[in-house]
Amino acid sequence: MDKTVFEITKMDCPSEENLIRMKLSDIESIQNLDFDLGNRKLTVYHVGQLNEIETAIHQLNLNSKLMETGQTDQMVSSESSNQRRLLWTVLLINFGFFVIEITTGFVSRSMGLVADSLDMLADSIVYGLSLFVVGGTIALKKRIAKASGYFQIFLAVLGFIEVIRRFLGMETLPDFETMIIVSALALVGNSICLYLLQRSRSQEAHMKASMIFTSNDVIINIGVITAGVLVHLLDSNKPDLIIGAIVFVLVIQGAYRILKLGK
């Protein structure tokens, strides 16, 4: 078996990882892919067809470079059932908080909570795609990726329109207490996910990608909590609208990356 290492400097999140997986999924010689997002490296275990693999990776325009290639006797193991269960746990927690936050966001008139709920949805989609890569047809994966990406963009655009309307309209204060309480619960949920992922000490690609994604969620949760405090202190809805707009931008960026999976 051949082992080839690529340096991919623009590969820094799960979206790029899944983009690469989709791009290489039709090359039958590939036995396994080992992603190191922290060091921006991809190790490909394959039997021949190096030129085809290298060409496919370069076509993604992620600033890739072949580092080394050679024979290896290393055994490539598949993702363990424990890792799959852990990823399912993270996915369900994120989707559960998506439902909670989008509901309480509309009830409390908080665009920060609504935006954070869409970020939770984006996470759920990425985790689901990561798990679904193991099975199912390529065509079905691509259709799901496209539908998910367009759906996220649609929701984010609606969110932006509402943010602009509230900026230009009458001052409507969101319920800062609901913002803080719900975001604090989401912070606890994401912190639990991050703890479970870190405790696994796994070096598998999906697990490391999930740690990075969940770490970003923790930061966003803290941002919404801070916005809730500022809404109360300043007696203004502007902090909520600003954090909502920022998170909507992140959601659209995530949706764009997901759409790449369907190409």
Largest sheet: 4 strands, antiparallel
Report the average pLDDT across residues.
79
Distance between the termini: 29 Å
- Provide the domain count: 2
Number of DSSP helical runs: 8
Structural class: alpha+beta
Q: Which sequence of strands runs across the widest sheet?
A: 2-3-1-4
Helix content: 55-70%
Which radius of gyration do the C-alpha atoms yield? 20 Å
Please trace the helix and strand order, writing H or E for each element. EHEEHEHHHHHH
**Shape label:** elongated
Proportion of residues in extended strands: 5-15%
Structure summary, number of beta strands: 4
**Which residues form runs of ≥5 with pLDDT under 50?**
75-79, 134-138
Description of the molecule:
The protein is α+β, with helices and mostly antiparallel strands. The protein folds into two domains: 70 residues, Alpha-Beta Plaits (2-Layer Sandwich), CATH 3.30.70.100; 181 residues. 68% of the residues lie in helices and 11% in strands. It has eight helices and four strands; from the N terminus they run E-H-E-E-H-E-H-H-H-H-H-H. Strands 2-3-1-4 form a four-stranded antiparallel beta sheet. The longest helix is centred in the middle third of the chain and has 31 residues. It is elongated and about 65 Å long.
